[in-house]
């Protein structure tokens, strides 16, 4: 379950930035997680809740904004958005030549701190 190591990394980044800015408590963390990132949000939340104990984020909630996969087809030139986690061809023309624009994100968007 790689979500545990990812949750630990997110927690370390959040705690380090919070302390550097002079805050002592994290109330919430908002994340962007792309559907094609390979991260299962439920598994991430479970892992995060396990690793946050005894830290300044012990009571923190995590808000996840799931980002759909979007791309641009190199053959037909169409932009597309899909709720699928994996895409093998353009939904418009079935070409396998496309560029992914969104869906692979893992970003801390903001934190509520005190």
TrEMBL record:
<feature type="binding site">
    <location>
        <position position="90"/>
    </location>
    <ligand>
        <name>Zn(2+)</name>
    </ligand>
</feature>
<feature type="binding site">
    <location>
        <position position="76"/>
    </location>
    <ligand>
        <name>Zn(2+)</name>
    </ligand>
</feature>
<dbReference type="GO" id="GO:0051604">
    <property type="term" value="P:protein maturation"/>
</dbReference>
<dbReference type="InterPro" id="IPR020538">
    <property type="entry name" value="Hydgase_Ni_incorp_HypA/HybF_CS"/>
</dbReference>
<dbReference type="GO" id="GO:0008270">
    <property type="term" value="F:zinc ion binding"/>
</dbReference>
<protein>
    <recommendedName>
        <fullName>Hydrogenase maturation factor HypA</fullName>
    </recommendedName>
</protein>
<dbReference type="GO" id="GO:0016151">
    <property type="term" value="F:nickel cation binding"/>
</dbReference>
<feature type="binding site">
    <location>
        <position position="2"/>
    </location>
    <ligand>
        <name>Ni(2+)</name>
    </ligand>
</feature>
<comment type="similarity">
    <text>Belongs to the HypA/HybF family.</text>
</comment>
<feature type="binding site">
    <location>
        <position position="93"/>
    </location>
    <ligand>
        <name>Zn(2+)</name>
    </ligand>
</feature>
<dbReference type="Pfam" id="PF01155">
    <property type="entry name" value="HypA"/>
</dbReference>
<dbReference type="InterPro" id="IPR000688">
    <property type="entry name" value="HypA/HybF"/>
</dbReference>
<keyword id="KW-0862">Zinc</keyword>
<keyword id="KW-0533">Nickel</keyword>
<feature type="binding site">
    <location>
        <position position="73"/>
    </location>
    <ligand>
        <name>Zn(2+)</name>
    </ligand>
</feature>
<comment type="function">
    <text>Involved in the maturation of [NiFe] hydrogenases. Required for nickel insertion into the metal center of the hydrogenase.</text>
</comment>
<keyword id="KW-0479">Metal-binding</keyword>
């Amino acid at each position: 379950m790689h979500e545990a190591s990812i949750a630990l990394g997110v927690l370390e980044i959040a705690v380090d930035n919070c302390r550097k800015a002079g805050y002592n408590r994290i109330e919430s963390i908002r994340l962007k997680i792309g559907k094609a990132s390979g991260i299962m949000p439920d598994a991430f939340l479970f892992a995060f809740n396990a690793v946050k104990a005894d830290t300044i984020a012990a009571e923190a909630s995590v808000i996840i904004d799931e980002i759909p996969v979007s791309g641009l087809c190199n053959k037909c030139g169409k932009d597309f958005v899909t709720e699928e986690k994996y895409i093998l061809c353009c939904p418009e023309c079935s070409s396998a030549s496309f560029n992914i624009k969104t869906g692979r994100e893992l970003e801390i968007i903001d934190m509520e701190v005190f």
